[in-house]
Structure formats: structure tokens, C-alpha cells
Specification:
The complex is a heterodimer. Chain A has 14 helices and 2 strands; from the N terminus they run αααααβααααβααααα. By secondary structure, chain A is an all-alpha fold. The radius of gyration of chain A is 19 Å and the shape is globular. By secondary structure, chain B is of the alpha/beta class. Chain B has 2 domains: about 1-80 and about 160-255, Rossmann fold (3-Layer(aba) Sandwich); about 85-155. Chain B contains 10 helices and 10 strands. Chain B has helices at about 40-50, 70-80, 95-105, 110-125, 140-155, 170-185, 200-205, 220-225, 230-235, 240-255; strands spanning about 1-15, 15-25, 30-35, 55-60, 65, 80-85, 160-165, 190-195, 205-210, 215-220. In chain B, β7, α6 and β8 (about 190-195) form a beta-alpha-beta unit. Mean pLDDT of chain B is about 85; it is low at about 250-255. Classes of the chains: A mainly alpha, B alpha/beta. Chains A and B meet through α7 and α8 of A and α2 and α3 of B.
């Protein structure tokens, strides 16, 4: 993993860090809020890419890990007054555990069946939480503002929250790169291209897929805690919103699935575009329609996404772009 | 030592017996040819040997270990490699990555770096070194077949199953492949080949088995096998019937 071998990756990491530090250096909360949405999207899309882009399994309900993490985190903070750090850890562990259990069961399904199962799980989780008293049922969990006291008040807590988000975004990019450039990742990509052939080549496909699913779930689980901690409340319809899962898919496909750079570009591009749409009177209420249309266009005309399109057109870029 | 012992293997699909009581031993270092008409059960035999199908009856012993019903990936790690009748390249990976995957997950369980070195060597051997950075999808069919072979070889198998590698190749390409099969055998790898190109299989095989409707109807040296009237009938068809069919076609044309 030397600088010489993967200059594109280090550049990406450096740029992500530099932009992420911008609001902290300038102390501008407006810029911070804009970047919060973008970085959250980047980290989530990068995680989804591990199962979607590298392994070739479409997870339609990936937001379930985000929602579950959020619930576990907020439950711990509100009921046991745990620190944000422990809550984030617990959110990641809960999401990872769910992915591991689910993976062993539903990763035997292939193609559309797996995708359908992931939708089912998201809906089942929402129904469960709706009827689960410790998580507040349909009203969810709200944090008392006193939980922000240990971090120097709500204003300071928001800055801390943002700082952790930037760190997790970098971690997600790093994880994506480590998976892609490892033997494990080569096995995943072999599964993506031809699962039966991969098995004949000696890849333990069930085990590899389960690990990939687990790795793609942990960071979303942690991010859920961060996001809902900042939000100070969580409720089932918001935490397990299928539309958010689909937006994540659009981001990964738009930028280029199966690459480290693709989901970063896709997520940033999509969020910036959405920012404009939400401000425009015409598109404000139909911004989801726009993302649906976008997905359609991408799938029809550039299924390999922006990065894939570039490297196909200019094969030399393959040396630089990861 | 026998690299493979197949004893009394029967495989059914519903009521259809795809293989019936197939039995043969394969000494190490040999090339065994499997011939038979379409639908005789040749590919099913491969699928049973490498664990894709589980036989209803019988045992498969690979290097003195009972592997009946073992998963394909475990068999691959024990040293069994396979090429497919219809090539299965990992399209969106480069040629080199395809072969590296073979080395990484095969018998020797290499890391990426060692796998890269093996891939370069094997690609040189099959004559694809110039294409190593291309995507596998960009190769033509003959090259894809060589890639399939390279990927299997990179696993450093004890036994290689090759399913109709020569189908669809022209004479020059067949000659290259035959040379390659001999070289692989010279390296000590045992090979079972399914092939329809008769001259080729007669040239490279030490022994032949002939399947027809899932039954093993003959076994022996290539020159003996073709003397057997049942083999000629099963494989080349009934000469009388052929004549009749030809006749009726001519009649249709005239009418």
C-alpha cells in the first residue's frame, strides 16, 4: 500500500481530509452542515459498494443497518447515559451482527431474490421497532438536551459529531481500498463475475459473501448513531426509509460501482445536485423522481458509472484511478 | 498412486439416470479421455467429480481421500481444477487478475504477490502474456479458452478436468492446445479430457472411457476402444441408419 503504487488513492484520501477540515478551520457552521450531508452520503455509499460493487449483490435495504445502529445508539445514550463513543461502537457491532446473521441466511439467494429479501428485512425491522417498547414504538426515542452536556453543550457536540463523521468517512474510503486491493477482494470480484466459476476455483463463496456483507454494515451502523445523535431523535419511518436505500444505490451506480473513487464522486455529485433541487421551487417536491430518472439513465446508458466510463474510454487511467 | 478412483457412481435427475454405475481408476500422471455422444453424461461426470452434483450411489476418492459430496471449493483447495465447456472468464477483471484468482484460491493458497508471479509465468506458458493487462471480456474465444486453462493451471492442481477445450477452435489452435496438454502432463499433472475432436483425443490420451446414456460401455487404450462395435455405433451412429437418413433428405430435396 505504498504511495507509489496507489497515488490516486492517497490523493483521494488527502482531498477528502482537507475539505473535511475546512469548516473546522474556518469555524463556519453553514459549510459544516452542507458537508455533513455530503460526507454522510460518501461514507454510506462507500460501505454499500463493498457488497454491491465488489461482490455484485444488490442490497436494496441497506439503510436498515443505519437505522438499527441509530436505534441501538440512542437507546444506550438515553437509557444508560453512555458516552457517544461507546454508543457508536455498539451501533457498529449491532449492525455487523445483524449482517452476519442475515448473511448466513439470505446470501444463499442470488440476484433479484437477494435484493427482494433485503427489502423484506428493512420492512420487517421497521414493523418490529414500531412494536418494540424499549425503542419507543411508533414515537421512537428523543434525547434530552442534557446528553450534550458532557461534550460542552449542544454546539460543541455538533462539532464533535462532525469530526467523528469525517474520520468515519476516511475509514470507509480506506476500508474500500483495503478490500479492493486484497486477496479477499479478488475473491469477492470473482464471485461478482461468476459465482459458480469462483466456487470451482476454490473460493468459499458463502463465507466470503457473509464477510463482505458484515464489512458493508459496520460503518453504516456507526453512522446511524452519529446522525441521530445530532438529530436528537429517531423514529421508525425515518430510520428505515426505503427511499434512502434507493438513493444510496443511485449514488454508487452514478459514480461507478466496484471502484473506490466511484461512490465518493457519485455521493458527492448526487448530494450537491439534490441541494440545488431542494432549493428550486420546481423540483423541491419531486427530487426523488429526479433520482429515479437518474438511476434509469445511468443503468441504460452508463451502467459502469462515471468512473467506469472514464477508465473504459481512457484505459491508461486505470493505473491511477482506483 | 491413483489420483482418482470413481467407483459405482450413479447420478439421477428425477427419473432419468444420467450416470449408471460408472467405475474407473486413474493412475497419477495419465491423460484419460472421456468420449461419447451428446447427452451421454460426460459433463455430468465432471460435475459429480468436482462436487457440483452429489451422486446418489458410489464413491469418489481423490488422492486416497474420500471426497464424495464435498463442496467444489474444498476440492479445488485439495488440488482439483477444472475448465468449463462454455468458457467462464471473469469479464470485468484483467486477464492477469483472472489467473491470479486461480493461484490465490487453489491448492497452494498464495498471497497476491506470489499469485502475481505465478500468473505471469502461466500466462507466458499459454501465450497470453501480451494480453495480461486487458480485460478478460476483450479476448476472442480461442484466447478465452487459453485463459480458462491458465486459470486452472495457476492453481497448481494434481488433477485437471478439461471439458471440450477444443470445440470451436481451428486446426492451428487445436495443434497449440494439444502441445499444451502434453506439456502440462509432462509437469506431472493428471488430466481428464472430454472432447469431440476425435483425432485430438486419440493423440493425447493414454486411456479412454466411452459413455453412452450414462453407461460406461468401454474402457481401454485409444486404439482398442475404436475397434469395439458398440463404441462405433454409439459414437459414430448406426451406419445403416445414417444411410437411410441421408436418403430421405435427398428425396425431400427432389420433391
Amino acid at each position: 500500500m505504498s504511495l507509489r503504487r496507489a497515488p490516486g488513492f492517497w490523493l483521494l484520501l488527502a482531498v477528502t481530509l482537507a475539505i473535511g477540515l475546512l469548516p473546522i478551520v474556518t469555524g463556519n457552521p453553514m459549510v459544516r452542515e452542507t458537508l455533513y450531508t455530503i460526507y454522510l452520503a460518501i461514507a454510506l455509499a462507500g460501505s454499500l459498494n463493498i457488497i454491491l460493487g465488489y461482490t455484485g449483490y444488490i442490497s436494496f435495504g441497506h439503510v436498515v443497518f443505519f437505522g438499527l445502529g441509530g436505534y441501538v445508539g440512542l437507546y444506550l445514550i438515553s437509557s444508560f447515559n453512555t458516552s457517544i463513543w461507546l454508543a457508536i461502537l455498539a451501533g457498529g457491532v449491532a449492525a455487523g451482527l445483524l449482517a452476519f446473521l442475515l448473511g448466513s441466511a439470505i446470501l444463499r439467494l442470488r440476484g433479484a431474490y437477494f435484493a427482494l429479501a433485503t427489502i423484506g428485512i428493512n420492512e420487517a425491522m421497521r414493523a418490529f421497532v414500531n412494536n418494540f417498547p424499549p425503542f419507543g414504538g411508533p414515537t421512537g426515542i428523543s434525547l434530552h438536551f442534557s446528553v450534550y452536556q458532557p461534550y460542552g453543550g449542544a454546539t460543541q457536540a455538533l462539532w464533535l459529531d462532525y469530526g467523528i463523521l469525517v474520520a468515519l468517512t476516511l475509514a470507509s474510503i480506506l476500508l474500500s481500498y483495503l478490500v479492493k486491493s486484497s486477496k479477499f477482494g479478488l475473491g469477492l470480484m470473482a464471485i461478482r463475475e461468476d459465482e459458480d466459476a469462483a466456487e470451482v476455483m476454490g473460493i468459499h463463496t458463502t463465507q466470503s459473501k457473509t464477510w463482505a456483507y458484515l464489512l458493508s454494515a459496520i460503518i453504516p451502523g456507526m453512522l446511524g448513531v452519529l446522525y441521530y445523535f445530532k438529530n436528537s431523535s429517531i423514529e421508525p419511518s425515518d430510520a428505515f426509509n426505503l427511499a434512502s436505500s434507493i438513493e444510496l444505490l443511485v449514488m454508487v451506480m452514478l459514480g461507478g460501482s466496484g471502484t473506490v473513487l466511484g461512490p465518493v464522486i457519485g455521493a458527492a455529485g448526487y448530494e450537491i445536485l439534490r441541494g440545488y433541487l431542494l432549493l428550486s421551487r420546481l423540483f423541491r417536491d419531486i427530487q426523488l423522481t429526479v433520482s429515479g430518472l437518474l438511476l434509469l439513465l445511468v443503468v441504460l446508458f452508463i451502467p459502469q458509472g462515471a468512473v467506469g466510463w472514464l477508465t473504459r474510454r481512457y484505459p491508461r487511467l486505470r493505473q491511477v484511478i482506483i | 498412486m491413483n489420483v482418482l478412483q470413481v467407483s459405482g457412481v450413479t447420478k439421477k435427475f428425477g427419473g432419468l439416470k444420467a450416470l449408471t454405475n460408472v467405475t474407473f481408476d486413474m493412475p497419477e500422471g495419465q491423460v484419460l479421455g472421456v468420449i461419447g455422444p451428446n447427452g451421454a453424461g460426460k459433463t455430468t461426470l465432471f460435475n459429480v467429480i468436482n462436487g457440483i452434483f452429489h451422486p446418489e450411489e458410489g464413491r469418489i476418492v481423490f488422492r486416497e481421500q474420500d471426497v464424495t459430496g464435498m463442496r467444489p471449493d474444498r476440492l479445488a483447495r485439495l488440488g482439483l481444477a477444472r475448465t468449463h465447456q462454455i468458457v467462464r472468464p471473469l469479464n470485468e477483471l484483467t486477464v492477469r487478475e483472472n489467473v491470479m484468482a486461480g493461484a490465490c484460491f487453489g491448492r497452494e493458497d498464495h498471497g497476491l504477490k506470489a499469485a502475481g508471479a505465478i500468473a505471469d509465468e502461466v500466462l507466458e506458458f499459454v501465450g497470453l502474456a501480451d494480453h495480461s493487462r486487458q480485460l478478460a471480456s476483450s479476448l476472442n474465444i480461442a484466447e478465452k479458452k487459453r485463459l480458462e486453462m491458465a486459470r486452472a493451471l495457476a492453481a497448481r492442481p494434481y488433477l485437471l478436468l478439461r471439458d471440450e477445450v477444443l470445440a470451436g477452435l481451428d486446426l492451428a489452435e487445436i495443434a497449440i492446445m494439444i502441445t499444451a496438454i502434453r506439456q502440462i502432463r509432462a509437469r506431472g499433472v493428471s488430466i481428464i479430457i472430454i472432447e469431440h475432436v476425435m483425432q485430438a483425443i486419440m493423440q493425447v490420451s493414454d486411456r479412454l472411457i466411452v459413455l453412452d446414456y450414462g453407461q460406461q460401455i468401454a474402457e481401454g487404450k485409444p486404439e482398442d476402444g475404436m475397434q469395439d462395435s458398440r463404441v462405433i455405433e454409439a459414437y459414430l451412429g448406426n451406419p445403416e441408419l445414417a444411410k437411410k437418413l441421408m436418403g430421405s433428405e435427398l428425396d425431400d430435396g427432389a420433391a
